[in-house]
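input
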Amino acid sequence: MSTPKPLHKLVIITDLNKCFGCNACQLNCKSWHTSSIFGPLTDLDPWGAEPFSLYLMRVIRIEQGTYPNVRTIPIPISCFHCEDAPCVKVCPTGAIYKRRVDGVVVIDYNVCQGFKYCITACPYGNIDFDPIEGVSKKCILCVDRLYDENLPEYERIPACVRGCPAGARIFGDLSDPNSEVSRIVAEYGGFVLGEQYGTKPEEEYLPIRGPSKGPFRNEPELPLEQRFAERTGAIDQAPDKVLQDAQQLGLTPEDLRTYKRNNKNVLPL
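output
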């Protein structure tokens, strides 16, 4: 039996050719969600012998080559919002679910009982547990930013994309063949991590390709906001397109900004 498809597939594409491992994505995510509706991100005894700090994403580093010809490759990792998400299937309370309208996997903190089945089921280690709140937490693609109509269009992107100084994180809708993320995945050969687990991760990576081209002197000078929107994928205005379909389901922007489970927006897996 085929897996049901969401109406849109909002994702973050990570360009490994641009990422240099500064961890700005991780820290910007931490900063945003510390005070967002999906926070707090707990810190315990940060200067003690056994500190604990909760993050919704991380940057791992792998070595390539043989000494002395070795290089380190940084790889930012957050929830892959899998098409066939095992975390959703094992949750006994239905607290974690995949949304019908945008494909984002979200945890309803009001329903989560802290059984941690989702943490065990995720083969990528992309879900963590908040010992103070007593609930599981993970990347939710900053839906509180995406559908905040008080933000300018170019700011309605995930915090990690917003904070990347290299433009290595690009946001968009992979179900739209004309989107920037669809274009670069096709052009540069996007790939997923952990394909062998059969969860069908939605988020993809672009391979290392060597020195990139541009900018060139004869390129037209664009307004700062437009250049930023093109670099981050905000130029496609994916959240607005999602909202148009959400309205057909009787969903409001506020419904999409929250973690609360709404049966109109639950994709059965």
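quick obs: DSSP finds nine helices and twelve strands in the chain.
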